Amino acid sequence: MRVLTGIQPSGDLHIGNYFGSIKQMVEAQENSQTFAFIANYHAMTSVSEGERLSKLTMQCATDFLALGIDPKKSVFWVQSDVKEVLELYWILSSFTPMGLLERAHSYKDKTAKGFATNHSLFSYPVLMAADILLFNSEVVPVGKDQIQHVEIARDIAIKFNNKYGDILTIPEFRVQEEVATVPGIDGQKMSKSYGNIVNIFGEEKAQMKTIKKIVTENVAMEEPKEYETCNVYNMAKLFLEGDNLIALQERYKRGGEGHGHFKIYLGEVMWEYFRDFREKREYFEAHQDEVKEILKAGASKAREVALTTIEKIRSVTGISY
Ligand code: ADP
Ligand code: TRP
């Protein structure tokens, strides 16, 4: 089975990215063909300083390797190193009804939040469909926010196949229900673009400072507290299992502790959880040339697959003549 995912290098990676997507990819490496890439063309919709984008691309690659993407098991590359994706993006545009894009939540949400819109934000799902379809992906692990984009890719692929025959593989999304949407420190979806993230590789003090800002209910110290609706608990549960999780629930129910105590606990378990990853990150941070070589080797493997698909597409559409 081929599993593919992409991530935008548009800011520091956060725990929503990790549990919503990266962790699933790392696990999938053991029994699937995994394809993971850094969506730097997509990031242009929000990062417009060149130096920053190239820096974030390397930072994201370094983070991915530290978090367990293994170039021996996965094909791992940067989107812009396989340019065929842009060709497919154009070809698919002719199979994308305007209404399909007008209904996309991500576009609607960004316009509602007052972001200046442009064509790339609008056509973003078509490029994402090209990412998915170029590599014959069967499964796309994503957070809940990206489900619609995978559905758009399916719709486009079906339209294309109706016209030209069974050329494109119809992809499916995979969402890990318990981490479908990790809340941010303000309680809405954690997202780089909303400035509400808890990042994975921050400094310990800065991390704790961010955690202290998590919005919580105003309940007196001695009172019992709701855990299901608590943003601190909903983050902490990602790092805890079994008895440790139950013990935290008991602390909420018992009362006698404030949310500040739970925040300190969250900071501690999170710091511990990412300890080994931090060590691995230091290695890759000090060996950026090795990271670049890994990416280039990944791009050439990805390109082999891309070429087979695009040549078939050029042929059936009459682009090759
Ligand atoms: P961001 O919203 O921070 O820009 P991306 O859109 O780059 O994040 O998302 C990369 C991956 O991480 C996607 O698969 C996305 O679904 C997942 N993801 C992002 N934020 C969350 C979240 N808060 N909860 C769960 N998954 C998330
Ligand atoms: N749009 C995705 C996000 O913001 C990133 C992405 C780009 C992606 N292309 C993809 C994810 C292809 C999965 C498959 O999270």
Fold and architecture overview:
This protein is mostly helical and 321 residues long. It has helices at residues 15-28, 40-43, 50-66, 84-93, 98-102, 105-112, 119-134, 147-164, 204-212, 231-236, 242-254, 259-273, 275-286, 288-317; strands at residues 2-7, 33-38, 74-78, 139-141, 172-174. It has 14 helices and five strands. Strands 1-2-3 form a three-stranded parallel beta sheet. It binds adenosine-5'-diphosphate and tryptophan (TRP). Residues 4-8, 39, 42, 128, 131-132, 140, 142, 146, 149 line the site of tryptophan.
Largest sheet: 3 strands, parallel
SSE run = EHEHHEHHHHEHEHHHHHH
Radius of gyration (Å): 21 Å
Q: Spans with pLDDT under 50 lasting ≥5 residues?
A: none
The CATH topology assignment of the largest domain is Rossmann fold
Largest sheet: spatial strand order:
1-2-3
Q: How many independent structural domains?
A: 2
Count, helices: 14
Percentage beta strand: 5-15%
CATH class of the largest domain: Alpha Beta
Number of strands: 5
Give the helix/strand class.
Answer: mainly alpha
Fourth CATH level, the homologous superfamily of the largest domain: HUPs
